[in-house]
Amino acid sequence: MTAAADAHRLTVVAAPAGYGKTTFLGDWARDCDLPCAWLSLDRFDAQPARLFQGVVGAIQAAASQLPMPGNNSLLALDPSLADDRAASYDLLLGALEQLTEPMALVIDDVHLAGPELSGGIVGVLAASAPPTLRLVLSGRGHPSIQLERHRFGEGLGQLGSAELALTQDEVAQLASSLGQDASFDAEPLWRVTAGWPVAVHASLTALAQGRHVPGRTTNTPPENLPLSDYIAEEVLDQLDEPLADFVLRATTCDWLGRRLAVELHGQPDGGLLLESCLRNGLFIEEYEYRDCESMYRWHSLFAAQCRRILERRDPLLAERLHRIAARYYQDTDVSECVNQALQGQAPRQAVVSIGGHWLELLLQNGAPALEQVCLDLPAPWSADAEMLIIRSVCRELDGDSGGASELRQRAMARTGELDAARRGMLDSCRGLFEPVPATATGRLDLRLAAEDARALPEFPSEAHPGTSSTGMFLLAQAEFRLHRAGHQATVLLESVGADVSGQQSEQAEIVADADLALASAVTGDLVTADELATHALERADACGWTSQDRMASAWLARGIAYYWRDELKGARAHLVKALRLGDKLSALCALGVVYQVLVDCASGDGTHLADSSAALESLHDRGLYGVSWNDFYTIARAKLAEARGDLDSALAIVEPMGAGGHAPLVETLLAELLRRGGEISAAQRCANELTSQHRNRYLDTSMSLTEALLAHGNRDEARTHERIEHAVYRAEPQSILRPFTERRDDIAELLIRHAVWGTTHESFIAARMAHHAQGHPHLRTRSYWTLTDREREVLAYMRSVMTAAEIAEALFISVNTVKTHERSIYRKLGAAGRRDALKTAAERGIV
Q1: Would you call the peptide bond into 380 cis, given omega within 30 degrees of 0 as the criterion?
Q2: What mean pLDDT value characterizes the chain?
Q3: 3-state secondary structure of 269
Q4: Which tens digit of pLDDT belongs to each residue from 1-22?
Q5: Is the dihedral of CA 315, 321, 324, 325 positive or negative?
Q6: Can you say how many angstroms the Cα of residue 339 is from the centroid of all Cα atoms in its chain?
Q7: What is d(CA 278, CA 283) in angstroms, rounded to the nearest whole number?
Q8: What strand order describes the sheet that includes 103-108?
Q9: Please, which residues bridge with residue 255 across strands?
């Protein structure tokens, strides 16, 4: 705050109720070096004359306590002049110009003055006061005065809820001061409240009171924080009645857009009222969603308390609003639809949404989550025939054939309860899954199903944007988007399009190619992934798909391929495109954000690291999840910590994960992180857990290099070279370079020794050695600069046993050019031949 006041003539402190603005500024005013005038406003201060008198009185009170040159004019002002606004404002500005030392004027609760604030003395001071007056405005929303000229001109000091919110450490300190012992875990409370000070204090106070209740746990935040009365009195009662009513209606959902706001409000001005909520600092933030559409997110704790208030005041209205929200989300977000329908006492609405979109829910969240949604339904809907058959599919996909069979039998016994439309959907489920061949372990064998070319029942194409209309396509997407190996998805996707015709066939083929590109990237075939993605994008352009929102998987496939090839700029560009076009509610988005984190960690760009970290947290906070999302989120956070140079924090983040049992990509990243952190045994366990059949080409390359470095640490020379050779064997056909670059410092010397030891991949090894030689500017001596870039590259290749012809082929130059570079190297280093040149170069730090 002191820095803001020193640097800017105007500083705005804006945050919702309960963030301690007045307390914070009071502490600052008492401790700052400037003489500080203070004025707290109320609703009556909207009158210009009253506001002028208050401002003059506050400034005179401060000036009288600390006499300074130029004070006399201020002290001589007559506040009664306020009736003549022009004259009184000129006199005040003139008196302020005579000050020779800065003075701060804090005006608190400016939101109470309303829109008239800009036309009174405060607006004049903000626009025209001399630099000696440092004006600080504090309130719940943006003050009604014009701020843009300051923001883009002389500058504007700003502090908001992000700065005023308590950190996790501060929550722990406050808990300790209120009697909690050292075992208190501050993180759950900090996450629930997002550091909202009044909510933190209310929770800790409730916990302190709970210590006197027998059998009450005292270190767990209460499920229902006692904040509804506070919000009713300090927030809602301070608003105009129409806006307060809108807030109670609009907080039915934590997230909403303008259309839903209109439906919940029941009036066409719902979108305008959302903007009003933003201006008034009402615990809401705006996010750009897609195609410049905005989504608005309430502070989850504030929204929950508003729902409690409405349920007490008008329970029937609260239920009706939940049903409205359920209808809105019925075809776009099944999980939210079910949640809203159950709160609105409309279980049938939930059942209809699940029945129509269960494949999408399976695709996004996996079989266990889909079954849990069915189980959460109240009786008798949880035993509905359609829900039972869907649960049987979940059991079958998870390998529980016995449980699946029992559920199917129960479902068949209740089909008479269904109407014709729902019976048709149930038959589609049966036709889609029952005949699928199973393996000896009972798990569905989708590869055999595809080989049988069994016709699958059609599903409405509008039920899942961006896919073809066959259940085969949806099943294939479920395979690789839920972090499985991707081989079965490849087989299934190759069969897509056989049952459709005409324009629909071409579109289905394009989307299938895009998803097949992603499946190829997941299985490690980067060449095919890039080719398919490029082909799909070219065909989409030819079809006039201007937005190409169905091409997100193709862009993601290219981003993955470019990352593992160590082309980081291209990788980030493709990933940004995928995330901008893709469905923010899908597992595809989650995978894209994780890879964006990996790319930004590799490049080390501070701005990009901050962006990817924010994207990761936003996705996690949104509640998206897949089969292994928590593991992906944890390893991504650890990689961000490592990229910032805090390896200890990275290790602390992954410590709860243990070693083994994770998705292959997570296991690979975890093993290398543990190795770099000195956790050798844990790293080895990760490597042992990820057997060869679970490793695709780039994961095998990466893990093999980790195993080579672990073996080198154990002085197992044979194992070291065997693992390096295997890594190179897997990497060369696909140009997988990122694992080598990432471990450059650790494997540079090992690659040289491996070239001497013997390899069947001399060109690839030599190229890696040349690349590593270019990447160590700290090793350069004065003699280094006597060699050109091409000469240094040729010198790096000379460390291998490659002939001049082989080096020429690797560098795409002629043999004569290579020999010319060799002669120049010998002359500059004073060497008689290759061995002598390499020895001299090593002594001088060139290689």
Answers
A1: yes
A2: 79
A3: coil
A4: 998 888 888 999 999 999 999 9
A5: negative
A6: 23
A7: 8
A8: 36-40, 103-108, 133-139, 10-14, 157-159
A9: 297
Q: Which position has the token pair 């049988």?
A: 452
The pLDDT tens digits for 369-404 are: 888 889 989 988 988 888 898 888 888 766 677 888
d(CA 286, CA 691): 45
* Listed range (39-43, 105-109, 775-779, 797-801) with the worst mean pLDDT: 775-779
User: CATH 3.40.50.300 occupies which residues in the chain?
Assistant: 2-164
Every domain range in the chain assigned CATH 1.10.10.10? 766-847
In this prediction, residue 501 carries a pLDDT of 41
Three-state DSSP class for 47?
coil
Amino acid 68: pLDDT: 67
Q: Which two tokens stand for residue 301?
A: 């704790």
Q: Residue 219 pLDDT more than 60?
A: no
Distance CA 137, CA 85 (A): 21
Calculated CA dihedral for residues 847, 811, 574, 476, nearest 10 degrees:
-110
Can you give the pTM of this predicted structure? Answer: 0.54
CA angle (654 as vertex; 652, 659 as ends), nearest 5 = 125
User: Which residues, in sequence order, are CB contacts of 11 under 8 Å at separation 6+?
Assistant: 1, 4, 5, 134, 135, 136, 137, 156, 157, 158, 159
In whole angstroms, how far apart are CA 305 and each of 161, 231, 312? 19, 8, 11
Most confidently modeled of 362-366, 503-507, 521-525?
521-525
Q: Which amino acid is at 470?
A: T
Amino acid at 301: L
Coil, helix or strand for 460?
Answer: coil
Residues 6 or more apart whose Cβ sits within 8 Å of residue 23? none
How far, CA to CA in Å, does 813 sit from each of 225, 515, 606, 760? Answer: 72, 39, 38, 22
Q: Where are the alpha helices (DSSP H) in 66-130?
A: 71-75, 85-97, 121-128
Question: Which of 341, 552, 373 is closest to 465 using CA atoms?
Answer: 552
CATH class of 766-847: mainly alpha
191 and 46 in contact (C-beta within 8 Å)?
A: no
Distance CA 290, CA 580 (A): 7
Q: Beta 133-139 vs 284-288: how paired, if at all? A: unpaired
Dist CA 342 CA 337 (whole Å): 9
Topology of domain 2-164, CATH? Rossmann fold (3.40.50)
> How many degrees, rounded to 5, is the angle at CA 804 between CA 803 and CA 809?
100
Of 541, 495, 547, give the one whose Cα is nearest residue 516. 495
